């Protein structure tokens, strides 16, 4: 069954409204449960109408992916200990970032055109990949798979800057030479490393703030993917999560009596005096 | 839709997101983070569209499957775990 594009877009609009009401509800104790239900309803609506889109040719992969992902998600959500919530959110957020990268990569290999398409793809891959690896580091730290202490070395900030500029340069060059797969994988590699080096120096106690920040990033990655795919639902919802996530990060910092800059760079300074010189 | 209209949507939604939450009691920080994380699972919509037109390309089929599965974990796990957290607060 297929339906006209405008009905799909109207359903996306309804989903966006439900997400707005949902986030608003989640911020107040009385309405939090309802808020979560409204957001889930919006998601259900958006997914169902998408399945009716005319561009979908075969359903095997979709059904297999939905079943596998849905079952794993449900099992994780039901089995996890309440005390392990922050690392679970980090893990789920990492999966979201990974999904954005996979979507942007699929679009890249299907063929993208124009400067806007290439730049949005590059940005989605950059932010999505660093969200994936950064969230996995946050998960590993909180799960005590690796040390919760700040891990770093002198010149790490310089390396981060090089990685970021390198990835941006690769995106710029990809606009000039759209078919160059080496540049594409270069962006993926630099972003993956950047996610590691951004989160490794941050101490375990500050991790919830970092997860909130990575959550905001994954929203922006979704938005960038929306520009690639010409999809309003992704653009609107991604920017909503990106912006509200950033505000939540700020609120959480304030509650801990820390500034965001302090969380991101402060723990490095405690590690050793030579790092201060940077 | 043309790029400028999309950019308009993007910028206005950013401002809406900034205004959306102002005061959040500390007990709700984690559930709110979890809830917005589940909402960012909307990438599932993009994943379905990308996987649905993979055609004969094995690489795109594999990427599409990974995208749908990861996004579905994020959506289902995210909303269920947020619900569990909020139910726990209620009992207190």
Task: Please render the helix and strand layout as text.
The complex is a heterodimer of chains A (278) and B (92).
Chain A lengths: L4 H22 L5 H20 L8 H20 L5 H26 L3 H29 L13 H21 L4 H19 L7 H23 L2 H24 L4 H12 L1 H4 L2
Chain B lengths: L2 H18 L8 H11 L3 H10 L5 H34 L1
Helix pairs in contact in B: 2-4, 3-4
Protein described:
The complex is a heterodimer of chains A (278) and B (92). Residues 268-278 of chain A have low confidence and may be disordered. Helices cover 79% and strands 0% of the residues of chain A. Chain A is an all-alpha fold. The radius of gyration of chain A is 20 Å and the shape is globular. Helix content of chain B is 79%, strand content 0%. The mean pLDDT of chain B is 92. The chains are: A mainly alpha (278), B mainly alpha (92).
What is the helix fraction of residues of chain A, given as a range?
Answer: over 70%
Shape of chain B: flat
Global mean pLDDT of chain A = 89
The major β-sheet of chain A equals:
none
Structural class category of chain A: mainly alpha
Tell me how many strands of chain B there are: 0
Oligomeric status of the shown chains?
heterodimer
Taking Cα atoms only, what radius of gyration of chain B do you get, to the nearest Å?
Answer: 17 Å
- State the order of secondary-structure elements of chain A, H for helix, E for strand: HHHHHHHHHHH
For the largest interface, the chains and their residue counts are: A-B, 101 and 80 residues
**Tally of DSSP helical segments of chain B:** 4
Radius of gyration of chain A: 20 Å
Overall geometry of chain A comes to globular
Taking pLDDT < 50 over at least 5 consecutive residues as the criterion, the unreliable ranges of chain A are 268-278
Helical amount of chain B = over 70%
Order of secondary-structure elements of chain B: HHHH
């Amino acid at each position: 069954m297929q339906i006209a594009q405008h009905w799909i877009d109207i359903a996306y609009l309804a989903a966006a409204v439900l997400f707005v009401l949902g986030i608003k509800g989640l911020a107040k104790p009385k309405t939090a449960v309802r808020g979560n239900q409204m957001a889930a309803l919006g998601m259900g609506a958006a997914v169902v109408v998408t399945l009716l889109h005319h561009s979908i040719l075969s359903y095997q992969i979709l059904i297999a992916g939905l079943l596998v992902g849905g079952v794993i998600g449900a099992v994780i959500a039901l089995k996890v200990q309440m005390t392990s919530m922050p690392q679970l959110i980090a893990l789920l957020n990492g999966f979201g970032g990974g999904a954005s990268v996979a979507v942007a990569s699929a679009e890249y290999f299907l063929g993208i055109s124009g400067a806007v398409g290439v730049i949005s793809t590059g940005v989605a891959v950059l932010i999505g990949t660093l969200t994936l690896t950064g969230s996995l580091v946050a998960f590993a730290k909180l799960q005590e798979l690796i040390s919760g202490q700040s891990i770093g070395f002198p010149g790490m900030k310089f390396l981060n800057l090089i990685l970021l500029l390198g990835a941006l340069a690769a995106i710029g060059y990809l606009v000039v030479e759209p078919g160059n797969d080496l540049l594409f994988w270069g962006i993926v590699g630099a972003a993956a490393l950047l996610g590691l080096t951004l989160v490794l120096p941050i101490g375990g106690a500050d991790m919830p703030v970092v997860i909130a920040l990575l959550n905001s990033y994954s929203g922006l990655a979704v938005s960038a993917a929306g520009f690639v795919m010409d999809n309003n639902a992704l653009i609107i919802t991604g920017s909503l999560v990106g912006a509200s996530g950033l505000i939540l990060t700020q609120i959480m910092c304030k509650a801990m009596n820390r500034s965001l800059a302090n969380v991101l760079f402060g723990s490095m300074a405690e590690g050793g005096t030579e790092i201060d010189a940077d | 839709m043309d790029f400028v209209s999309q950019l308009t949507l993007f910028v206005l939604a950013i401002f809406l997101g900034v205004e959306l939450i102002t005061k959040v009691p500390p007990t709700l920080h984690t559930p709110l983070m979890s809830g917005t994380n589940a909402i960012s699972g909307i990438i599932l919509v993009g994943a379905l569209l990308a996987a649905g037109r993979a055609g004969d390309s094995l690489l795109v089929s594999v990427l599409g499957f990974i995208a749908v599965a990861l996004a579905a974990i994020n959506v289902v796990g995210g909303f269920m775990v947020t619900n569990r957290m909020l139910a726990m607060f209620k009992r207190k």
